[in-house]
Structure formats: C-alpha cells, structure tokens
Amino acid sequence: MTVRIGIITFPGSLDDRDAQRAVRIAGAEPVALWHGSHDLEGVDALVLPGGFSYGDYLRSGAIAALSPIMAEVKDAAAKGMPVLGICNGFQMLVEAHLLPGGLIRNDHQHFVRRDQKLTVENNDTAWTNVFSRGQQIVIPMKNGEGGYIADDTTLDRLEGEGLVAFRYAGVNPNGSLRDIAGLTNEAGNVVGLMPHPEHATEPGFGPDTAVAMRSGVDGLGFFQSAINAVVRVAA
C-alpha cells in the first residue's frame, strides 16, 4: 500500500517542504495540506512542521492551534491517526492540549541551533518504533522557545506512565525540565519534539559528526516508524 502523510502549512511555516521531502525519502507519499482547510484529503498520518506560525504572536503555536484544520487534527488524533509535531508543531500540540505542559523561552534567552544528541525513552509509539529504547540519535535543533515546562504532578505522571519520548543527552540546550525533548500521548499516536528529524534524512545533509555525517540520517526513523504503524493497522 502507498502510505500518504499530510504536512500542514501554516502562515509562517518554514520546514513544511523539508518535511515533505523527508516523507518522500522514507517511502511514503507527501500530501500538502493548508491550515485554512477542513479537509485532510484521506491521509494516513499528519505532520505539523516547524517554523514561526503567525509570527509566534501571543505564544508560539497558540494561534495556529486555533486554525480551522486543527479541529480535524484533533478528531483524527482521537481516532488513532499518527500525528507528529516538530518544534513549532510541538508547540501547537501543547497549545491544542493534545500533549500536556508548555514551551517557553530558552533559559539562556538566546536562539539555539546545534546538532543535538537525544536518548530514545519510548520506542513504542507510531513515530519511534524503529528505534531501540535507550538508543542515542543525533537530530538538528533550532529554537528560541524550546524550554519544556509542566507542574511536578504532570512531570511525575509523564515519567511514571512512560510518556517521555525523548530526552536531551550530553547537554540540555534550552532548560527543559527533566531534560525532556519530546513527548507522546497515552495512545502512542501523537508525538511532539523540539529537534527537527526532517533535517536528518539524507547522507551528507544531516548533523556533521566525527563519522563523516553517517549519523545524519537518524531522523529517517521517525517517518519509517509512521509508515510501519499505518501498514500494521491496515493489515
């Protein structure tokens, strides 16, 4: 079967085309979707891409979370469709209450861009099933408001229920509580993270490492995982 993954463009999206390319490289068909539409065009999974939707006015992701298409995103997520929020997309997911907590200005008050090591904490989701638990991957990140926050009760619940999908390894680049880099919902179909897996899908174009960018394709696993999840359900 051909898996169709929709990538939603919002005013101010920057990485929607990169996400489309990543989906294509992974072996699925990318479908461009528009924030003002109520039609998901029969896609099997969804990506909310990075960028600065609506200029990050009010709060990052807050206005985009109220876009017309988000009503369909919420409904699809509730029915089990795989949904990935990347950076600004992660901010949208928390603003839409599809994931708990919030994201605030980096603790050092500067925009950060770096090749970031992550530890995979949960590999039992629609977007992480090709990884191993405890595996370290390198994913580019670029954000100014990536500090994850939540109250202690929520943080304890996330830890206790295994809902932390990724944790920063080596260095915490933005002051996120408990080094949280990404989350999953209870059903495992909705995942959000600050780093950008769509920028690590082609040899020679991903993070520059001591092994000549061999780890530059770590992001491909996200999209391959989604394909696996869709095919399993269809079978």
Q: Mind explaining what this structure looks like?
A:
This protein has 235 residues and is of the alpha/beta class. It has a single domain (4-234), classed as Class I glutamine amidotransferase (GATase) domain (Rossmann fold). The chain has helices at residues 16-26, 69-78, 88-95, 152-160, 220-234, and strands at residues 4-9, 29-34, 45-48, 83-86, 102-104, 112-120, 136-143, 147-149, 164-168, 180-184, 190-193. The chain is built from five helices and eleven strands; from the N terminus they run E-H-E-E-H-E-H-E-E-E-E-H-E-E-E-H. The model has no long low-confidence stretch (mean pLDDT 93). Helices cover 23% and strands 24% of the residues. The chain has a nine-stranded mixed sheet, with helices on both faces. Strands 5-8 form a two-stranded antiparallel sheet. The protein is globular.
